[in-house]
Amino acid sequence: MIYLLTKAFHIIFVVTWFAALFYLPRLFVYHAMSTDQISNERFKVMERKLYRGIMTPSAVLVVLLGLALLWQVPGWLQQGWLHLKLVLVLALIGYHVWCGRLLKAFAEDRNRHSHVWYRWFNEAPALVLIAVVVLAVVKPF
Questions:
Q1: How many alpha carbons lie under 13 Å from residue 25 in its C-beta half-sphere?
Q2: 137-to-39, 66, 89, 116, 126 alpha-carbon distances in Å
Q3: Helices (H), the chain
Q4: ∠ at Cα 43 (57, 96), nearest 5°?
Q5: How far apart are the C-alpha atoms of 39 and 31, rounded to whole Å?
């Protein structure tokens, strides 16, 4: 029962983390397109609240619950699919930190990227999500 609850909450927080990973770069797209001060300040508040209030706590809980799952099923550490999944999770953590740096640049009015760049940047987590889900469900190796 504990394993199933841990797994359920791990999945729930993966969903909330990915929702934020998808939405924050989309806010960056619109923020990069904004031209007036009111919009600029509004985006700063939205981005900060999303990053600090949802995205980061979700990421921390995903990692902690993932570690709890590994503690409960240590045999997974011998399986190749998990190694690749963990590499992808580390890449997502890097993406998360990168988003934080971009957020800081916007907060300090130092953004150097166009809205088109952010549109492409926004696609990366979707590709990782597909790979992680396939690895976790299919366990190909």
A1: 23
A2: 42, 15, 15, 34, 17
A3: 2-33, 37-50, 56-72, 80-107, 115-121, 124-138
A4: 35
A5: 8
Euclidean distance between the first and the last CA atom of the chain, given in angstroms as a whole number = 27
Query: Judging by beta carbons within 10 Å of its beta carbon (0-12, 13-18, 19+), is residue 95 exposed, middle or buried?
Result: middle
Closest CA to 85 of 54, 93, 4, 38: 93
Q: Is the pTM of this model over 0.70?
A: yes
**Cα 91 to Cα 3, 73, 78, 98, distances in angstroms:** 26, 23, 21, 10
- Dihedral-angle region of residue 91 (phi above 0 means left; psi in -120 to 50 means alpha; beta otherwise): alpha
**Distance of CA 80 to CAs 24, 76, 87, 125, 141, Å?**
32, 8, 11, 21, 5
- Give tens-digit pLDDT for 78-102: 999 999 999 999 999 999 999 999 9
* DSSP-assigned letter for residue 141: -
* Exposure string for 15-31, b = 16+ CB within 10 A, e = fewer: ebbbebbebbbebbbeb
